[in-house]
Amino acid sequence: MGQRIVQVDAFTAEPFRGNPAAVCVLERPRQDSWMGAVAREMNLAETAFLHPESDGWRLRWFTPRVEVDLCGHATLASAHVLWEDGHLPPDRMAQFYTRSGPLSALRGDIWIAMDFPATIATRVSPPEGLLEALGIGAPVATARSRFDWLVEVTDEALVRSLAPDFSRLRHVNARGVIVTARARDGAEHDFVSRFFAPAVGVDEDPVTGSAHCALAPWWAARLGRTELVGYQASERGGTVRVALDGERVRLSGRAVTVLRGELVC
Known about the structure:
The chain is α+β, with helices and mostly antiparallel strands and 265 residues long. Helices cover 19% and strands 41% of the residues.
C-alpha cells in the first residue's frame, strides 16, 4: 500500500485560490531525502509531513528546495487533514511539535485558529539591492524579523502592482521579503501584503501564514488594535485573521481539500 497524500488550498474557502499545500500523514518518520524528493515532485510552495509523537504530531515543512523553520499555510492544511480524514476528533486540538517549538490549531464552526509565535520586525536600513530588486523607490519603512525583510510602502495599489526582479531578489540574505501597506479606504481588510522568497525556491508565495506573525505586531502598533484582517494580494489571494497576544499570534483561516492521491514509491 502506498502513502496517502492530500492537497489542500489554505486561507480560502474556494478551491484553486489561497495557498496550496500537500500533506502526508505518516505512520513513522521518513528520511529527509525522501521528504525533500516528494516536495520537489509536488512542486508546491510547501509540502508538510507529520507523524504521531507524544500527545501530538511531529510536523516538518519542505519547499522544493529546502526545509523551513516555520510555515503557516501548511500547518493550517495539516490540521484540516487531521480532522477531515479522521486522525483527530473534530473537537480535539491539533498539537504540533516543530523546529519553531510547539504550535497548535483549534477548529471552529468555519475558521481554524492557530497559535504561533510572534516574530517582531525591527526597523533597520535595507540591504544593498533590496529596494532596486523590488522596484521600490522610497518605502515608508524597512525592518528585519527573525526570518524575513519587511518593507512598508505608501498604498495598497503599489503592493498589488509590484513586479520584482527575482534573479536579483534571490541574493537577498533572508528567507523572504514581505511588502505591505495599509488597506485602501472602505476595504474589508486592514492591511495587504505580498511575500517573495526566491532564495528558498518560491518566487511568490500566494498566502503566507508565517509572514503574518510579523505583520500582526507591525500593524497592531500602527493601527492601535490587536485584532486585524490581512489580505495577501497575490494572483490567487487569501485572507488571514490575526490576533496579537503578547509574544503569540493567533492566525485564523479557512481551508478546502482539492486533491487526494497515493504515492507509490
